Batch of 4 targets.
Target 1
Amino acid sequence: MTAFRTLDDAGSLKGKRVLLRVDLNVPMEGSRVTDATRIERVVPTIREIADQGGKVVLLAHFGRPKGKREPKDSLAPVVPALSEALGRPVAFAEDCVGEAAKAAVAALKDGEVLLLENTRYHAGEEKNDPAFTDALAENGDIYVNEAFSAAHRAHASTEGLAHRLPAYAGRLMQAELDALTKGLEAPARPVIAIVGGAKVSSKIDLLQNLVAKVDMLVIGGGMANTFLHAQGKAVGKSLCEKDLAETATRILKAADEARCRVILPDDAVVASEFKANAAHETVPVDAVPESGMILDAGPSSVKTIEAAIDEAATLVWNGPLGAFELTPFDAATVAAARHAAERTKAGKLVSVAGGGDTVAALNHAGAGESFSYVSTAGGAFLEWLEGKELPGVEALRAKG
Ligand SMILES: Nc1ncnc2c1ncn2[C@@H]1O[C@H](COP(=O)(O)OP(=O)(O)OP(=O)(O)O)[C@@H](O)[C@H]1O
Ligand SMILES: O=C(O)[C@H](O)COP(=O)(O)O
């Protein structure tokens, strides 16, 4: 494995335009950041570069606008939270390429910080389009990748730029890889994974490899509904990707072959709508009403999950067990998080969790600080765990 070039190898940063790729895909409610963990974790690197007289030009994505300029996916509302965490002003440019970006970068003085608008407003970002990468590269002298949590994407700002400009790993990128390697390279067994959340189509495939690496797999959140549907259960109006039923069945078979115990919910909290305090009832998973929406795992499922955590020596977790942002549909996530935190504090469990919303959920449960390690990465963390090479990480490896 070739080592990375890091900021220590970048020489003097004074007067240099540093294109710093960060992950600011933070949980928001309207225009308010509800969990600033991802912001706080990149602050030391921004300060380090700025304090050396570098001009910090931040590149980031938000949401999945797929090349369209969707106002709901603007990074502008993140600026106040970023500026507050940094304790310095942060300028903002309404585009990440072209005249708006060029003028804002040209106006930067040494040590100042600028955030460019969502890279995913351009289709070239996700296509890793060379012309778009060149346009991004025009605004930097060097490139620093700090977005471990987006390193599983081979996009222009996460991979392409590393081939255009002198490229370095940021401090958080280094710290994440170090911590995950130390904590999980040879994990104490049995290992339990909890995978929940809402990004079903982009995460379901990796479960196929994950079942060969872990001893128990809890499938929760929106992800569980697709599996319940694959087992022939009616899931009403729940978040469910029915066209992935075959994939789910294949994963259950692979788990069986790998002797990985799969734990699916056996009861669910079903609501009439996706709203805090919506009318709700707890039902067995084979009795979900047609008009109902599964928003959380029920108490019997929580009991099973807690008992499984008690058997495990290592826990890896990505994706909440329910719609934890909406009371009372946070109950299963909060209970499981607190249970894992207690086991960790008692020295009985190594617990590693990651993901934008997962970290927010752990913090909401008051459990985050007790986990052994909390990563900013969700999907990237799971792919790393699968043993996959992450394009954003590979592109940083020092050549020659
Ligand atoms: N049953 C459910 N129905 C609908 N949404 C759900 C359900 N369970 C969980 N969710 C939603 O899943 C979202 C989090 O999923 P996601 O996969 O994005 O996790 P994450 O920790 O942010 O990981 P990543 O960093 O990869 O995005 C939350 O917003 C939560 O409301
Ligand atoms: O939230 C995340 O996991 C990262 O920001 C990557 O987002 P994506 O799944 O939309 O690529």
Target 2
Amino acid sequence: QSVWGYDSDNGPERWHENYPLAKGDKQSPIEINSKEVQHDSSLSSWHASYDPGAAKTILNNGRTCRVVFDDTFDRSVLRGGPLSGAYRLRQLHLHWGSSDQHGSEHAIDGVKYAAELHMVHWNPKHGNFAGALKQPDGVAVVGIFLKVGNTPKPEMKRILEEIENIKTKGKEAPFQHFDPSILFPKSRDYWTYHGSFTTPPCEECITWILLREPIEVSSDQMAKLRSLSKNAENEPMSPLVDNWRPPQPLKGRIVRASFK
Ligand SMILES: NS(=O)(=O)c1ccc(C(=O)NCc2cc(F)ccc2F)cc1
Ligand SMILES: [Zn+2]
């Protein structure tokens, strides 16, 4: 059945059959090779000003775990860095592996992390999200790598505790009073490049801002994430894991770094 996913019959190698953009020249994710990155001293630092009251719900859509925010006005915005103007926070979600050794979508000098968190923002000058994804400067995604370690970041606990209530596809729970900027690592260093959604329809509308410093999670927290199911409640159990797209051809794109 044509619904896209991450299995052998509907996975990344076949997305182009229904979503031709998947074979475009500015696809994401990519492999970052720090030797080819260009330091750009004109890149300013990025700033997030998020309203904790904008957080609404957390859901399992069978492909990821997503927290949704109120983006009906400039309530939680990201500005600066490579961006011009304020981009509205719409949702955050994660990609993870079936083991701690892989799961991130971007890779740095061959290193894959256990997971990758994406904070998705859109440019209100394009009216609405659907309009923004048709524009090259329509969407900005902050990517944060999750690394398994012994000093896990307590701020991830809130999202992981909620997983109990959204175990199967279609489950949704209230998720309020949450400021996602608590998830940012100490350093603001980032890489930036122009790319696409890493899932169909793979529109090439994203300014990627990938944070250099990973945040730490525990192996138990990763196991928690892997306890999500991609099936609905009354269907056979199927673990929601390995919901990541492999790196795509760079096709001559330049990756800039805000740091030396
Ligand atoms: N992994 S990622 O950060 O690159 C990413 C970010 C957002 C979306 C998204 O909004 N999908 C839904 C969606 C996409 C459309 F293109 C049109 C409508 C729509 F709901 C998908 C992937
Ligand atoms: Zn994503």
Target 3
Amino acid sequence: MRRAVCPGSFDPVTNGHLDIIGRASRLFDEVIVGVLVNQSKQGLFTVEERIDMLREVTGSYENVRVESFRGLLVDFCRAQHASVLIKGLRAVSDFDYELQMAQMNIGLAGVETLFMPTNPLYSFLSSSLVKDVAKWGGDISAHVPDVVRDELVARLRR
Ligand SMILES: Cc1cn(CCC(=O)O)c2ccccc12
């Protein structure tokens, strides 16, 4: 059983994330989307809200499941019996940091990292940019699933 972990904060999930998750689901027997619990960073959505949105938008992939994790990513991979990490790369600027993490993770626990180029349609996307645009009333319909757009607009109205 070939399992892969797709880690992130997903605050919230974007179409760029979903594109990578969908493509990964066709490469592996199982894909575990790992939502990082980061105590030192207060997100817009709670971890539970992010998990709920991810489960809704990945519901059509029967080999994708969503879990949260804290601490070392390689410990989460071990616990999930996953030998591969999947990272979406948007631009060369992503590569420096991701290469450093990949080298650390293989050294720590022999966990390999598979870099997948994002679909050019989404290469400019990030959760932060989407939140900023939505905060100022911009239309983000092309960048996130409808359920995420609706949740984001409602949350920013609070
Ligand atoms: C492009 C990209 C960035 N990340 C991290 C996102 C985050 O940390 O919220 C991803 C996670 C899954 C699939 C693609 C991506």
Target 4
Amino acid sequence: MAYYWFKAFHLVGIVCWFAGMFYLPRLFVYHAEANEQPEPARSILKSQYQIMEKRLYSIIMTPAMLLTVAMAIGLVTTEPDVLKQPWMHAKLACVVLLIGYHHYCKRLMKQLAADECKMTGQHFRWFNEFPTVFFIVVVMLAVFKNNLPTDLTVWGIVAMVISFAIAIQLYARKRRLAKERAAVESDGLLGNASS
Ligand code: HEM
């Protein structure tokens, strides 16, 4: 019975942890792009994003990561044999990378707060894809275990995820270019009006 309790709360932890890992880099995109705004909008937006990032990281992401790991420890203590399985070794390797990503987010938060971050909104859009890819891999490993399918279906799913990520990036680029063009045009109009 304990095993089911651990598994249930392992899943609850995962959902909350990944909600944060998907949303925090999105906030980084807005935070980095706030630098392009004129004052006082720039300072107001930056301090607001800083508060949102800090709360999301400390109140949701970190406790959820700890819950996921604590429940996982419960699972492997109840069924120690899973630790001998190759799928579990692959899963643990992915989890180490995800925990590294989680901590790297904290570093980026500090850099953004101190105005020392070199990454642009576009960099953060790519950075945002990392947890998505690992989320899919880890869930596939947890469900299929040692029978991870490698047939056409899998490659179809991989192609779909990659195309989706590329489409998001291209859409964001199109919107950014349209915004820049509109800004140049309105500058031109203002220049004509004043001359
Ligand atoms: C901290 C490292 C982790 C360990 C040691 C671990 C271990 C385990 C174990 C032993 C199970 C039960 C397997 C079964 O009963 O079939 C499980 C289930 C599961 N884990 Fe993890 N896990 C970890 C992290 C994660 C993460 C980060 C994710 C998601 C990205 C994840 C997704 C899942 C899913 C979806 C299940 C349910 C699988 C099923 O019932 O078929 N795990 N985990």
